[in-house]
Amino acid sequence: MKLTSNWSSEEQQRDDDEQSITQKRRAIKNVSPVSTVAQNLIEATNTVETERIGQEQVKAATSINTASIQEASRLADTHIQKVSIPTFLSYTSYIAAIETVETQSVVQDVQDPAVVPTLQLPQQSVQYPSNTPTKYITKKYALLFIALLSILVFHSLAIGPTQFAGPQGWAYVLGGPASAGNGNLLGIGRQNPLKPGSTAQPTHKLTPQEYVNMIVQRMSPDQKLGQTMIIQFLGPSYSLDLTTMVKQYNVGSVLIFAANQNIVSKDQLKGLIRQMQVDSPIPLAVAIDQEGGTVDRLNALDGPRPSEATIGASGNPGIAQQAGIQDAKDLSYYGINLNLAPVVDVSNNYNSELYLDHRTYGNTAAIVTRMASAYLNGLQQSGKVVGTLKHFPGLGDVSVDPHLGEPQLTRSQSDLQQIDWAPYHNLIQQGNVHAVMVTHELVQAVDSTKPSSLSNKVVTGILRNQLGFQGVIMTDSLTMESISASYDESQAAALSVEAGCDLLMGASTPSDVASMMQGIKQAMNDGQISQQRIDDSVRRILMMKYQMGLLTIPTTD
């Protein structure tokens, strides 16, 4: 492109004659005209200063001395001219215009051109754009882009380096955790609006089992495994780990635990649970250990509740029932729907942790059964909270806490049936039991090789088949020393499912959940666990959620 000239016609002609010996040199940034141009560029000016330089003829014999170079530079500076650069030049062209200047050597009074060497300087010229206007980002869009990038960077910093560099990485930063499978698991039934003048037709009401079966059929394999997890978490807020476990891994249940700092205030706890439920594709079973006495998780919020030992000592089932009603009221206020109580261990060992902490109703199967039955009726009569019998097959006659070691139950099978298992048998026969927790102990009379929670002989052979329990069987935490001393979490998860457990407790991070799920998948690949076995567990879990009032059966045409 031609530059606009301010020279006279005579000067222009002389310049044209001198084009054949034009040389180019690189502009130095600290030269005054160039520095001025850089400042003007920042201020968004559309005019830059460029230099048209005429060079004096240089005399030299065999080399160029310093004085000659200085004199040539002095003469060149006398030919500086302002030139307008078109306003449509791109940012790249501006930079090129600043950094490169055209220089011309004007040879005058040359006595002997043959002996005058040409001053060799870097050969670079301004690159001008074609006639097609260059598109560039306007200031408005540049600011918008910077704002969006800043949000992305701040969000990346907020989630922390572990999550950012982990398996989810940018996928989580950009879109949050995602879950595979059908996201509309509960939207099965539909109701068509009636046309004006038409008569309502009778609709088919699904049975609970039909509805549960439909949900199971729509679930992906990972969503099914997620339902078998009851997780813990750290802190009082809806953290990244908790969000990931709920939304990405589709966990079925969450345990609220005071020792994990999950409970701070009434509003905090209620808001936290509500937020978890909003994000869960299938409503969560939200659990807590609210036994009363020394195991009173809501004491700081609602005040103390009596221990089982105190209630049992009263001999009055009405007190037990009222305690159940009060607990249901307390729990349902926050959105808690699964109480890991009552304890139905029969206390015969006065060195046991249960006895010392006043966690049992008494030392006979009869008093334990009577009080636990009344409490369960009170707890579950509202239809909002479900209770859990624990700790099968019985911790009433052991002295080792499974949190710290592996207890051994040495009673004969006959004594087990008459003492430890009698409350379970009687309460299950009443048809009011929806969940049973299995602990980790060696039952010498049944299986001396595996802890009870991992033993098919104990879980399926005794609890499921002999005692006839068809509800949800959950493990106590698989992170207890009685399990973790011999099994990692993936092994424990697979073995507990093989044993017949439905709901597995212990995971507290997304990696824990992933490890436990992977252990189950590996056992399925090896033929140790069938898909039908998983489906059966999911059906039992969903039926329990229906009994909690979490699932509403739709009507179909």
Major sheet attributes = 6 strands, parallel
Give the mean pLDDT. 78
Oligomer: single chain
Main sheet strand line-up: 12-11-8-7-6-18
Question: DSSP strand (E) fraction?
Answer: 5-15%
Number of helices: 22
Computed CA radius of gyration, to the nearest angstrom: 41 Å
Portion of residues in helices?
A: 40-55%
Q: Which structural class fits the helix and strand makeup?
A: alpha/beta
Span between N and C termini? 76 Å
Q: Tally of extended strands?
A: 19
Shape: globular
Q: Which regions are unreliable across 5 or more consecutive residues at pLDDT < 50?
A: 1-66, 75-92, 94-119, 158-181, 189-196
Description of the structure:
It is a single chain. By secondary structure, the protein is an alpha/beta fold. The radius of gyration is 41 Å and the shape is globular. The chain has 22 helices and 19 strands. Strand 6 (229-231), helix 9 (240-247) and strand 7 (253-255) form a beta-alpha-beta unit. Strands 12-11-8-7-6-18 form a 6-stranded parallel sheet. It has a 4-stranded mixed sheet with strand order 1-4-2-3. Among the domains are: 9-115, no CATH class; 139-175. 43% of the residues lie in helices and 11% in strands.
